[in-house]
Structure formats: structure tokens, C-alpha cells
UniProtKB/TrEMBL annotation:
Cross-referenced InterPro entries: AfsR-DnrI-RedD_regulator, BTAD, OmpR/PhoB-type_DNA-bd, P-loop_NTPase, Sig_transdc_resp-reg_C-effctor, TPR-like_helical_dom_sf, WH-like_DNA-bd_sf
Keyword Transmembrane helix (UniProt): no
GO biological process, alphabetically ordered: phosphorelay signal transduction system; regulation of DNA-templated transcription
Entry protein name: OmpR/PhoB-type domain-containing protein
Keywords carried by this UniProt record: DNA-binding, Transcription, Transcription regulation
DNA-binding region: 1-85
Lineage per the UniProt record: Bacteria, Bacillati, Actinomycetota, Actinomycetes, Micromonosporales
Source organism of this protein record: Paractinoplanes tereljensis
Classification via Pfam families: BTAD (PF03704), Trans_reg_C (PF00486)
Length: 449
């Protein structure tokens, strides 16, 4: 459904017949087991007017679909047809279930879990819904499903912005605004992303463009959401707070966090380096420390993901404090924390370090970088078994995970204690209520961790 109307059995695609026959199946699928009256089916299948033997043709289509799908797939009732529940796994049903779980997780403050669930839902979207199905009925449902898709995309992007990943979503939001210039929510989120990324002038220009387009095209002013975002941006800028939000299910790392915080509260311009393999939690630990140190660095926390090679990070850092000034001299007299994530180029890091008394920096990378004097490097290891089980329990439910302690420890061991891998496992378990922890362990072990 989330693309062309297609059906598969054991990985093999089934022949669903003519466009009209596919339309009949699509209508029945969209009613999810409810009876569809013959008159409604006829109107949907033959939008330009039915043939004389429309009812007989419907019966033929139903018979053919039963042969292809299952003899029990379609029930004939007095005056209509209905799909028998439980005969299919429908991608639209899976999508809606994942979205529901994602929204519930977000309402409970579990943003990482929510983002994973919404991303999994969006991954199942294969193209234009009901592609190739003709008629006004399909067109109306296609429009509704496309609206749902856009809404879920925007929810996922809003979570990315809240987690401090403005740089990753700005291109997607820019494309959305170009495709839907009169829609206000994508423009509002684009303004937010640009502002969070230190591109305040572009954010204001985005608002001005939207106001002009709304006035010219619809004769109306921007709505409350867009106007409030504009007011937030034009107010006297607060201290920049660019750190990604630490996950609500953050667990463990008590000693590592305490040591890192103590180091950064030291005199001068301390620099702490965190190394370790991918997914071990370097970025999360750095963000957690930065949030704890907000009172020690009241003039702002700056963040850069150095994997984004094309970004002019010094310009963005300067822009966070005003239109003029050089880096790092603009920091003189300020107490600012700088977090440089995923660093692999010592020259680039050196140019971004806040070499000003009263400021501090955290640098994360897979290995220590040479030629950076004054950096105190520490290697981050994977979780101990108890810490890994605790993370799984927070993501997938205490009772569920604690009921199978041995299986939970097998999952932790198979993941090497790497929190990033454990988060993937926790999100997968949370999105599959029919799985046991032992099922998850078997999946992880079979997948090679």
C-alpha cells in the first residue's frame, strides 16, 4: 500500500491482476476487515461509470483474488465484501502501529526510543501510496496517506532538532519547504534548525519569504506557530545551548562522568578527550557532562559534529555570539564550553579549541589525536553486564527484561557491552511486544552482534 498495491508470499510477488482488480483489493484493504457495500466498490473501481455487468465483474475479481491470495481471504456478505482479518500483514497497519508507539514514547519523554520507532515506520514507506491505482477514491486516500507521511516525517525531524541534530535535518527541511512553500510547519522547523545551527539571518529570511508567499498566494498572515518562532529568534539571543539532549534513559558511567566533570571544572582552559570504538557512548557522555556543567559555563555551550566536513564551524561558532569578531578571541571574558564530536583531524580541532582562560573543551574520537598539547585523554570501555541490562530494561520495560536475566546478559555480551548496539536492541525489543528477551538474544547472536 505504501507504494504500489503489491502482495508477496514467502518473498515471491503475486500477480494481482488488472488495475481495476487491484483497486478492489485496495479498497478492501483500506477498510481493514469492514464490509464494503457493492455500490461503494463499484463507485471506487469504475469512477468514470460502471459497465453493465459491474456486479458480476466484481464477483469475478473476488474469485480471482481468492485464487491468488487465499480461498479464505475475502468474505462475501449480504450486499458487499470484506477481507477476513488475520489473512495479511499490511504495511499500512505496521506503519500506524509503529507511529502510535513512537508517539506514546515521546509523550513519556523517551525521545530516543520515539525517534527509533518513527524512523522504522518511515523506512517502510516505498513511494507514492496506492501508486498505479486509478480513480477518485484512490486519489482521495492517496492524498490522506501522503499527509500522514509528511506529518510523521515532521515529527521525526522535530525530535532530531530537540536532540541537537540541526545540521542533519536542515537539507531535508529545505527540500520540504521548496516542495510545500505555503505549509507553515516545515518552514517553522527550518527556521528553528537554522537558528540552532547559528544561521540566524537565514532563519529570519526564511520567515520573510513565508510571510510574502502567504500574503501573495492566500491573502493571509503567518499562523501562531510561525510567528512565535519568529519572535523567539528576534529576541535578544540567549547564551547558545547547542549540545544534543542527553537521552532520558542514560544509565551507568557514574565514575566516568564524575571524572570528566571534575577535569573540566579545573583552572585555566582544560581540554578533556574521550576515545573509544563507535557506539561506545562518547558523544552521549560528552553531552551529559556538558549539561551538568551548564552553571560552570553560563555564557554558552557550543557543539560541532566534525563528520560534517562541509560546514564552516568557526563561522557558526562566531555567529552564536554576534555578527562580528574573530575566533577564539570573541570568547574573551566569557565562560564557554566547546564540544568537538567525532574528531579525526588534529589541525581542524586545534583551530576550534577555545584557547581562552575560563573556557573548556571536550574532544571525542576513536583514538587520541597527536599534536594537541594539554588534552587529557581517557578511553571509554563498553558497559559492564549489569549496566547493559539496566539500559535494556529502561528501553524495553523493567519487568519484561528482569524476567529473563540470563537472556538479557547474553544480549549484552553479544553486543560487546557497546551502548549504541544495546540501544538498537532495546528499540527493537520495545517495538516487538511479541518477542521475548531470549528471542532478541537469538536475533543478536545470529546477526553477529
Amino acid at each position: 500500500m505504501l507504494g504500489g498495491v503489491r502482495a508477496f508470499r514467502n518473498g515471491t510477488e503475486l500477480d494481482l491482476g488488472s488495475p481495476q482488480q487491484r483497486t478492489m483489493l485496495a479498497v478492501l484493504l483500506l477498510h481493514e476487515g469492514q464490509v464494503v457495500q457493492w455500490a461503494d466498490l463499484i463507485a471506487a473501481v469504475w469512477a468514470d461509470g460502471p459497465p453493465r455487468a459491474a456486479l458480476g465483474t466484481l464477483r469475478t475479481y473476488a474469485s480471482r483474488l481468492r485464487r491468488v491470495l487465499s480461498p479464505a481471504a475475502i468474505d462475501a456478505t449480504a450486499g458487499g465484501y470484506a477481507l477476513r482479518p488475520g489473512q495479511f500483514e499490511l504495511d499500512l497497519t505496521v506503519f500506524r502501529a509503529l507511529v502510535h508507539r513512537g508517539r506514546s514514547a515521546r509523550a513519556a519523554g523517551r525521545n530516543r526510543e520515539a525517534a527509533a520507532l518513527l524512523a522504522e515506520a518511515l523506512d517502510g514507506w516505498r513511494g507514492v501510496p496506492l501508486a498505479g491505482v486509478p480513480g477518485g477514491y484512490a486519489e482521495a486516500r492517496r492524498a490522506g496517506l501522503s499527509e500522514l507521511h509528511l506529518a510523521v516525517q515532521l515529527e521525526r525531524i522535530a525530535l532530531d532538532l530537540e536532540e541537537g541534530r540541526a545540521g542533519t535535518v536542515i537539507p531535508q527541511l529545505t527540500a520540504m519547504v521548496e516542495a510545500h512553500p505555503l505549509r507553515e510547519r516545515p518552514r517553522e522547523l527550518l527556521m528553528s534548525g537554522l537558528s540552532r545551527a547559528g544561521r540566524r539571518a537565514e532563519a529570519l529570511a526564511t520567515f520573510a519569504e513565508g510571510r510574502r508567499l502567504l500574503a501573495d498566494g492566500l491573502g493571509m498572515d503567518p499562523g501562531p506557530g510561525l510567528q512565535e518562532m519568529f519572535r523567539q529568534i528576534v529576541r535578544i539571543a540567549p547564551a547558545p545551548a547547542q549540545l544534543p539532549r542527553a537521552p532520558a534513559d542514560f544509565t551507568g558511567r557514574v565514575r566516568e562522568l564524575d571524572r570528566l566533570v571534575d577535569r573540566l571544572r579545573g583552572p585555566g582552559s582544560p581540554i578533556a578527550g574521550i576515545t573509544g570504538p563507535p557506539g561506545v557512548g562518547k558523544s552521549v557522555l560528552a553531552a551529559r557532562a556538558g549539561h551538568r556543567l551548564r552553571d560552570a559555563f553560563p555564557d554558552g555551550q557550543l557543539y560541532a559534529d566534525l563528520r560534517e566536513s562541509g560546514e564552516d564551524v568557526p563561522a557558526r561558532f562566531r555567529g552564536a555570539f554576534g555578527p562580528s569578531g574573530r575566533w577564539p578571541e570573541i570568547l574573551a571574558g566569557r565562560r564557554v564550553l566547546v564540544v568537538l564530536d567525532h574528531a579525526d583531524d588534529p589541525e581542524r580541532v586545534r583551530a576550534l579549541l577555545p584557547a581562552v582562560a575560563g573556557c573548556a573543551a571536550i574532544v571525542t574520537g576513536r583514538r587520541p589525536l597527536p599534536g594537541l598539547p594539554g588534552v587529557s585523554w581517557s578511553e571509554l570501555a563498553g558497559f559492564a553486564p549489569d549496566e547493559g541490562v539496566e539500559l535494556l530494561a529502561r528501553m524495553a520495560g523493567e519487568r519484561r527484561v528482569r524476567a529473563e536475566p540470563a537472556a538479557a546478559r547474553r544480549v549484552v555480551a553479544a553486543c560487546g557491552g557497546i551502548p549504541g548496539r544495546l540501544r538498537i536492541c532495546g528499540a527493537r525489543l520495545a517495538s516487538r511486544p511479541e518477542w521475548t528477551v531470549a528471542s532478541l538474544a537469538a536475533w543478536v547472536i545470529a546477526d553477529g552482534g
